[in-house]
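quick one if you have a minute, typing this from the bus. below you get a single protein, a line of residues and a line of whole numbers that encode the local backbone shape. could you go over both lines and see whether the tokens make sense for that sequence. anything you notice is useful, everything is just below.
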Amino acid sequence: MIGAAFMSAGNIIRFGLQLVMLPIIARMLGPHVYGVASFAMPLISLASLIGDTGLSSAVAGGAQMSVKIESNIFWVSVVSGGSLALLVSLIAVPMGYISRQMEIIPVIIGLSPLLIVSAATTLLNGLIIRQHRFWAFMVGDILSFILSSLTAIVLALNGFGIWSLVAQMLVLTGVKFVWLFSISRPAIILHMKPSEIRSLISFGLDVVGANVCNFIGRNVDNMIIGSTMGLTNLGWYAIAYQVISIPDAIVSGPILAAVYPRLSKISGDPSAVRMLFMACLSIVALIVTPAFVGLEATADLAVPLILGAKWLPSVHLIQLLVPSGWLFCIYSIFYTTLLATGRSRDQLRVGAYLAAATAVGVAGGAMFGAAGVGIGVGFATFSAAPWYFRLARTKWGIGVSDIFEALGPPIGGAAFMCVVLATSRLAGLDRFLPLAEFPLLIAVGCTAYFGFVAVFRRPALLGHLRFVRKARDRGAP
């Protein structure tokens, strides 16, 4: 769990910095500029996933390494990244004409170089996870975020508009690459024969397919909203989606990255996988649930306070997207376990369904405005639950009752937290401490939630925490 702690600490620090930097940039640029960036970025991010070729997962999972294999992975990734950068630049023009959003053409072309750098980082990410040097991710994330945010602020102050965000992404990716390269120190020589890593590429392609479907499911909404409702509406939606994604980045991602190697090693033992899966499910749900309840209950206070009045339309969207954000955190446990145990094709099928369901939900909801989109995303996300439940039952013997037993205490704590927060707001805290209402509500809500959980399930949750920590240690090479 030390690795997860490092990654979570890094994400928490970065989130704290983001609370300072994001309002400054958002207030200077406004929803329309964020809408342009949010419309352009899905294509870049999709190409980046494909450029990874899934090889980082193969390296992290314990594949045998040598100087030639490392060099092969590095140069294959760089070549694929360069090819994708060229392809994306060519696609940008027809994409702009078809969507009638000509502003995105130069933005996509300007962002395309980061595909090369991002692809070159594939090997480095895998080596860092393989070596369990998670502190490197923490330091790299913080360093790259600070430098890239400062770049964006300086350019925004000088009137560069959307190019402030383009520069931010390029600096973010570049700094992270330089840092991870200096830490992982891969053995790179001028050697590229893809045939020598065919088995890794074969494994990687299944992972890429699953990642792409997962990505499309989470980003098709941006493309539909930008095309049908305009870039300003997309800007409001993008900020809301970014907010509900924070718990997944801070909690689920680090924990699951830390146990991934262990899951790979025990993939042939369903009972061991079951125990680790249930422990991760309990811990992740325990931590992320109060964050989402807090978002639901205090978004109307937090958004104008942090981002300003021009972002008020994002409040209702955040509240509508909260259930989907919570499910994304839960689904990430299924997703990681399927990939780590060699069942990436099962995840590919679920991801393809979720992408299609999201497209249908967003397209249908767009006819009823932003609120309809939020509801459509929610229905699509919930509809994938039976798929994951069936896979958990057939692959690892985990029944629906087992899942709800793990989720019961967090859900019960969430219900109690809702009652306490609703009572506090009805009592009119703002009449006594108007400036302190938001932080006071957070403190009251968290006390209520964790107090409830401590009373009803403290021993079991502590046992799960110890089990995950041991699993992480056993996963070290």
